[in-house]
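Recall that a protein's primary structure is simply its ordered list of amino acids. Everything else, from secondary elements to tertiary packing, is in principle encoded there. The following example makes that idea concrete.
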Amino acid sequence: MKHSIRKITLVSLFVISLGVPFRCGPDKSVKYYNLGLEAARRDDYAEAIRLWNESIRYRSDDPETRYNLGLALFSVKRYREAEEQLREAVALDPLDPETHHLLGKTLEEQGMLPEAKLSYESSLNVKPDYVPALIGLASIALKENQDKSAENHATQAVELDPNNLEANLVLSEAYFRNGNFNAAYGQLLSARKRSPVNQDLLMLLGKVTYARHMYADALETLAAARTLGISNDEIFLYLGLANLALGYTSEAEKDFRLSLFKNPENARAWKGLGETYMKDRKWREATESIGKAMQLAPDDPEAVLDDAVITLNEGDLSGAAQKLERLSSRPDAPQITNYYRGHAYLRMGKTTEARDAFQRFVTIWQGSASLADEAKAIVARLSP
């Protein structure tokens, strides 16, 4: 939610000031306050910050000035200073849900997630149906990989404010992470009717359409998000994945390399680059890329599988079989593991082990019917 600068009138300040001995303070406080408002309207936040600091010199106990100063500091990413002002504002007016929320946003930007969560909860204690605070809790949950909790908070936010784009995006992201791609897709299509050119929506929609195997749609949507200005490692990763799925290996290689240029630690981009080389049968390059992926994410079962498949294609049948045996014993092994394990045994002449591996593959496989038919035919051929 975008916060707004707050206005205050001379009358309201004098009402607040009743009982305080009158000097020149309130006059100058209001003067600098209003000059700060004018600067903020021009988006001159540096000047607004200077003027509101002056206002606070003459009246330090005004929560509205503290709030506006905190918001201006937040807007220029001076989060630590914003936090100080907003803590003062909360102390002066603990019943303002918006101030609690902005303090939470400031803490979240500093990576202080437990403290941010407490501020969002304080906001909801004051106003239980305050949508921005629910979105804040959902955002924290996503960052802490508590995806089901994120979905619950975001669902409440959307029910309270169906037209809130941020709430819809957070809920869609939660659905996506929870593997509910159809729900994420429907949520995003509904939100897109209200915001057809939002880059964050298009980025997420591209990820979801890729996950739903709508590769051409994913490519088109991600390209639109790229045109609108997104240029981080994630968008190039998903562009690469979509191009790879469509068989455009030259484009996929470019995208994965751009992703890695943006973030050399992106293990999934290294894996995608390796799989691109595997598709082009460039085994040396594939080995290097998958090796980088495994260094960054040694427990990734798909990277382990890729490594075994490369070993198999390079002719090291025994080494490939050993890697596939270890992987197949893991509960997170990709469904296709026993397919390759069966082929390794078959090429080694171990027909019984090959038949058993292909049979296990057929039992759990939920993908392409052609692979299942191939495996069934091999099982039938190898059966006594």
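Residues 25-41 form the longest helix (17 residues). Residues 8-24 have pLDDT under 50 and may be disordered.
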